[in-house]
């Protein structure tokens, strides 16, 4: 395993073992096409990508968040959670996500707003401390946000260069949780 650190080799071996053990499970699931991506110069093995159960914002979550943050909310808004995203309010959104007693639907919807807000920023994500907090929240609450992580991973794009800015981070998060 030349080119891998000891930790990297162990991680790679664990992923292969998981894949081998899970072939029967994967065969029963709805899946997206195979992809190949590169991360820090290491080409990952082709893997079957499993689409998690679909989830989307609820009207009640949208209504509550619109009121809580004084966001526009009209019947003609499509993809509300992406339309109201605001890169200037990321810290406020994260603070409410972390410190409020939101329902799962409200947390799911607020996380979509947060991710779109980061997608709209011009800052480098890998050095942004608020982005790191967001990734930790996604990882900690992965079951709640599995569909979000899968969606923003943009697996349908063969080239990571044609994907969302957040996609490399989401792919890493996805891979560490499957």
Number of domains: 2
SSE succession:
HHEEEEHHHHHHH
Structural class: mainly alpha
> Distance N terminus to C terminus?
23 Å
* Helical content class: 55-70%
Number of β-strand runs: 4
Mean pLDDT across all residues, rounded? 80
Largest beta sheet: strand ordering: 1-4
* Residue fraction in strands: 5-15%
Describe the structure.
The longest helix is centred in the N-terminal third of the chain and has 16 residues. The N terminus is likely disordered. The chain is built from nine helices and four strands; from the N terminus they run ααββββααααααα. The chain has two domains: 50 residues, no CATH class; 127 residues. It has a two-stranded antiparallel sheet. With 178 residues, the protein is mainly alpha-helical. The protein is globular and about 40 Å long.
SSE blueprint:
Elements (H helix, E strand, L loop, with lengths): L5 H16 L1 H6 L2 E5 L2 E2 L2 E2 L3 E4 L8 H11 L10 H4 L6 H10 L4 H16 L9 H12 L1 H12 L13 H11 L1
Antiparallel strand pairs: 1-4, 2-3
């Amino acid at each position: 395993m030349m080119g891998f650190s000891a930790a990297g080799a162990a991680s790679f071996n664990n992923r292969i073992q998981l894949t081998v053990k899970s072939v029967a499970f994967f065969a029963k699931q709805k899946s997206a096409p195979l992809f190949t991506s590169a991360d820090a110069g290491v080409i990952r093995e082709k893997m079957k990508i499993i689409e998690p159960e679909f989830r989307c914002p609820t009207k009640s979550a949208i209504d509550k968040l619109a009121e809580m943050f004084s966001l526009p909310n009209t019947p003609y808004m499509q993809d509300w959670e992406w339309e109201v995203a605001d890169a200037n309010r990321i810290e406020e959104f994260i603070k409410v996500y972390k410190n409020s007693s939101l329902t799962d639907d409200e947390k799911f919807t607020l996380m979509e707003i947060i991710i779109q807000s980061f997608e709209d920023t011009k800052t480098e994500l890998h050095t942004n401390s608020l982005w790191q907090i967001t990734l930790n929240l996604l990882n900690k609450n992965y079951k709640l946000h599995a569909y979000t992580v899968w969606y923003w991973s943009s697996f349908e794009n063969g080239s990571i260069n044609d994907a969302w800015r957040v996609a490399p981070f989401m792919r890493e998060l996805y891979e560490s949780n499957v």
